[in-house]
From TrEMBL:
MF terms in GO: DNA-binding transcription factor activity; sequence-specific DNA binding
UniProt-recorded name of the protein: LysR family transcriptional regulator
Similarity field: Belongs to the LysR transcriptional regulatory family.
Pfam families per record: LysR_substrate (PF03466)
Organism annotation: Brucella intermedia M86
Biological process annotations from GO: DNA-templated transcription
Organism ancestry: Bacteria, Pseudomonadati, Pseudomonadota, Alphaproteobacteria, Hyphomicrobiales
Residues of the LysR substrate-binding domain: 43-240
Transmembrane segments: none
Entry-linked InterPro entries: LysR-type_TF_proteobact-type, LysR_subst-bd
Length: 245
């Protein structure tokens, strides 16, 4: 591989070829080592949230958080309402009355619910609030009839018998039904602002009520105390929600 001459040692043709191959190999090893180092520095956050909160609050704003924190990867998953997978998830955003005992939690969003529907239902209506007691207009329910009963009782409307056969486990699906003219449902006023501006939803009444349940950020006490990436995400989320309430 080497030739000793009068002027010193030089590389043979075979040696030059080997040197080139070795140089490329070491370059590739260095590149892989760099990638491994980057992967080790990347912090993956696994957060569960229902489709409505995930799409309307997190997904539409998360680019700013990730840009500010390039070392964090966010894995956003759908939520199983009756499951708390503490061993696989760093945190969850859950719509509930009481968080699980012993868990760290903060209230993110206390909703002010107003009735909304498709503009199609208001086309020939002089007073939109008349629809609220029209037995021919379906009421869209989130899980159960409590929201409707509370709103009607709070504002002194007569609770006439109404079509109450449509129930949804997620507000995102409920709003999709409302947009398509299937009935009247409730939503947090600021979160349907874009729908109203686009003309896909109308506010039937500005009268609102606050349900007992709220969106809560929930995780283990140990995780929030030791996981800096989770702390950053929590603080960012609290700040973002405060701008839309």
């Amino acid at each position: 591989m080497l030739i000793r001459g009068s002027r010193g040692v030089s590389v043979t043709a075979e040696g030059a070829l080997l040197l080139e191959v070795c140089a490329r190999a070491f370059d590739e090893i260095g590149a892989v080592a760099t990638l491994i180092g980057q992967d080790n520095k990347t912090k993956i956050l696994r957060v569960r949230a229902g489709p409505f909160f995930a799409m309307e609050v997190i997904a539409s704003r998360i680019a700013g958080f990730l840009k500010q924190n390039p070392g964090i990867q966010l894995h956003l998953n759908n939520i199983d309402i009756d499951s708390i997978a503490q061993d696989t998830e760093d945190a969850q955003i859950k719509y509930c009355l009481h968080p699980p005992a012993g868990m760290y939690n903060i209230e993110l969003l206390k909703e002010k619910l107003v009735p909304v529907c498709s503009p199609l239902l208001l086309a020939n209506v002089a007073n939109p609030e008349d629809l609220l007691v029209d037995p021919g207009i379906p009421r869209l329910h989130y899980r159960d009839v409590k929201d409707w009963k509370r709103w009607i009782s709070h504002h002194g409307f007569d609770d006439l018998t109404a079509n109450s056969n449509l129930f949804f486990d997620d507000q995102h699906t409920l709003l999709a039904a409302a947009r398509s003219g299937q009935g009247i449902g409730f939503s947090h006023r600021p979160l349907v602002k874009n729908d109203v501006e686009r003309g896909s939803l109308c506010i039937v009444s500005e009268r609102y009520f606050e349900p007992e349940e709220s969106y809560k950020f929930i995780c283990s006490q140990e995780n929030i105390a030791t996981n800096q990436a989770l702390q950053l995400f929590r603080d960012w989320l609290v700040n973002e929600v405060s701008t839309i309430c």
